């Protein structure tokens, strides 16, 4: 059975590195706070209770798809799509197609940006590969009008950023929850990291710092990230209760049974904060 993503793919390298994954979700957490479909985050009211736990559950699901074989990935994607359908039926309306694309585009955008901030510039071939992988996920989920190339995605991404973002009361509340669950120092670090990876329009709407002061630390971290002592940089972003889960993000995920009871909905609902049913 072939793998859904080739073992040598840049996508596996990105999603098998805890540093990069944390930066991906820092950026996505910022952008979706501005998304005009952000009300879906609040449909069940579960988000404020455990935003960090929701982040890790979303990471786990995304990584299962990236590291699964073709059949396993398709089963996971089909389950996610079915859960979304159930949530839409429960609310009595559909999540707009553009909102589905926005979230998929965030996976592409922040996979690229996080890797480039922490590692090196990506080649055009690597950017095409990242775009192709996540658009395959989207097509399997039935998301329409997805781009067929990296240049086409760049154009669609700019259109989405221009049309689908606005600050709202939900934006304010989400950032209050981030601060509550992270604490002051980690919250400020989160905002600095977000400032390094988000597009200018997102940085402006959220009044994020540029994060330029992080560059010397990031450069030093790049030289020492393989040292055991470098774990402090990852642990600095999240509370100590999550250290084991941060370490588990390095490498392929361990195969586990699907969780019972509440089902988690990544990808077609806000990154890092799922609606549960």
Automatic annotation (TrEMBL):
<dbReference type="InterPro" id="IPR018713">
    <property type="entry name" value="MPAB/Lcp_cat_dom"/>
</dbReference>
<feature type="domain" description="ER-bound oxygenase mpaB/mpaB'/Rubber oxygenase catalytic">
    <location>
        <begin position="43"/>
        <end position="212"/>
    </location>
</feature>
<dbReference type="Pfam" id="PF09995">
    <property type="entry name" value="MPAB_Lcp_cat"/>
</dbReference>
<protein>
    <recommendedName>
        <fullName>ER-bound oxygenase mpaB/mpaB'/Rubber oxygenase catalytic domain-containing protein</fullName>
    </recommendedName>
</protein>
């Amino acid at each position: 059975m072939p793998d859904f993503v080739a073992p040598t793919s840049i996508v596996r390298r990105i999603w098998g590195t805890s540093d990069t994954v944390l930066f991906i979700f820092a950026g996505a957490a910022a952008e979706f706070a501005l998304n005009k479909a952000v009300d879906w985050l609040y449909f069940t009211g579960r988000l404020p209770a455990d935003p960090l736990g929701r982040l890790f559950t979303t990471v786990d699901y995304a990584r299962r798809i990236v590291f699964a074989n073709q059949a396993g990935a398709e089963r996971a994607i089909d389950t996610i799509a079915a859960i979304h359908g159930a949530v839409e039926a429960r609310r009595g309306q559909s999540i707009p197609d553009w909102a589905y694309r926005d979230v998929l585009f965030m996976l592409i955008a922040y996979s690229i940006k996080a890797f480039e901030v922490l590692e090196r510039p990506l080649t055009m071939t690597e950017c095409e590969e990242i775009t192709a992988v996540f658009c395959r996920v989207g097509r399997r989920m039935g998301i329409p009008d997805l781009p067929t190339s990296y240049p086409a995605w760049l154009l669609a991404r700019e259109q989405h950023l221009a049309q689908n973002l606005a600050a709202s009361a939900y934006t304010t509340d989400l950032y209050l929850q981030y601060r509550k669950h992270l604490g002051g120092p980690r919250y400020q670090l989160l905002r600095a990291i977000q400032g390094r990876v988000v597009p200018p329009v997102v940085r402006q709407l959220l009044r994020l710092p540029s994060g330029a002061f992080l560059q010397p630390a990031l450069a030093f971290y790049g030289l020492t990230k393989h040292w055991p002592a470098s774990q402090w940089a990852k642990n600095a972003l999240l509370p100590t209760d999550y250290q084991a889960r941060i370490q588990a993000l390095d490498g392929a995920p361990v195969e586990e049974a699907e969780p019972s009871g509440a089902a988690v909905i990544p990808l077609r609902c806000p990154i890092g904060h799922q609606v549960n049913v």
